């Protein structure tokens, strides 16, 4: 794992912890920072990161807190509290 990948990993954990503590603003800052690091280093963000962050507002999504998760014909649909939807093929 590269230094950049480790930083992204750490930021994802921080974002999750902040979001769970109800501090969405701080979580958003961690998400943005991680996105920037990934971009600069041409890294693909981890799948968990992509699934649990909103593409529209960078909020770290916590199902049941600030996100709704629904299953729909073979897809998982995550709705952020900002109203944005993200659809993923259903897999585990
Ligand atoms: Zn959003």
UniProtKB/TrEMBL annotation:
Keywords: Cytoplasm, Endonuclease, Hydrolase, Metal-binding, Nuclease, tRNA processing, Zinc. One of its GO terms (biological process) is tRNA 5'-leader removal. Its cofactor is Zn(2+). Its main location: cytoplasm. Gene3D superfamilies: 6.20.50.20, Immunoglobulin FC, subunit C. Binds 1 zinc ion per subunit. Part of ribonuclease P, a protein complex that generates mature tRNA molecules by cleaving their 5'-ends. Consists of a catalytic RNA component and at least 4-5 protein subunits. PANTHER family: RIBONUCLEASE P PROTEIN SUBUNIT P21, RIBONUCLEASE P SUBUNIT P21. This is Ribonuclease P protein component 4. It comes from Natrarchaeobaculum aegyptiacum. The lineage of its organism: Archaea, Methanobacteriati, Methanobacteriota, Stenosarchaea group, Halobacteria. The gene is rnp4.
């Amino acid at each position: 794992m590269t230094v950049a990948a480790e930083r992204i990993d750490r930021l994802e954990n921080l974002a999750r912890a902040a979001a769970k503590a109800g501090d969405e603003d701080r979580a958003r800052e961690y998400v943005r920072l991680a996105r920037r690091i990934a971009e600069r280093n041409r890294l693909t963000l981890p799948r968990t990161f992509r699934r649990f962050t909103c593409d529209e507002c960078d909020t770290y999504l916590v199902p049941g807190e600030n996100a709704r998760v629904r299953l729909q014909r073979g897809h998982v649909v995550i709705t952020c509290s900002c109203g944005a939807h993200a659809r993923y093929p259903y897999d585990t």
